[in-house]
Write a structure and sequence with these properties.
about 80 residues; mainly beta; three-stranded antiparallel beta sheet; two-stranded antiparallel ribbon
Length: about 80
């Protein structure tokens, strides 16, 4: 394995209120991912579950990353 691939990386993402990723469909990655929601909320459109500020999630490699939307988005 390449050393660059073995190093953990931290990425900070920010989405605007009303963001909806459903058009992108389900994504799969070859690495694990940890998410901590600092503020706002996201709604997992596949599981029908809302995640709010202060919640943490960890997804393993190849685990589907479900489409999500901001629950404040217009239907």
């Amino acid at each position: 394995m390449d050393l660059e691939q073995a190093r953990p990386k931290a990425v900070r993402d920010r989405w605007a209120p009303g963001t909806d990723t459903s058009a992108q469909g389900v994504a799969r990655r070859d690495f694990w991912e940890e998410v901590y929601l600092v503020e706002g909320a996201l709604h997992d459109l596949t599981a029908g579950r809302a995640f709010t500020a202060g919640m943490y999630a960890r997804m393993g490699a190849e685990q589907p990353d479900q489409p999500a939307s901001d629950p404040r988005a217009a239907p």
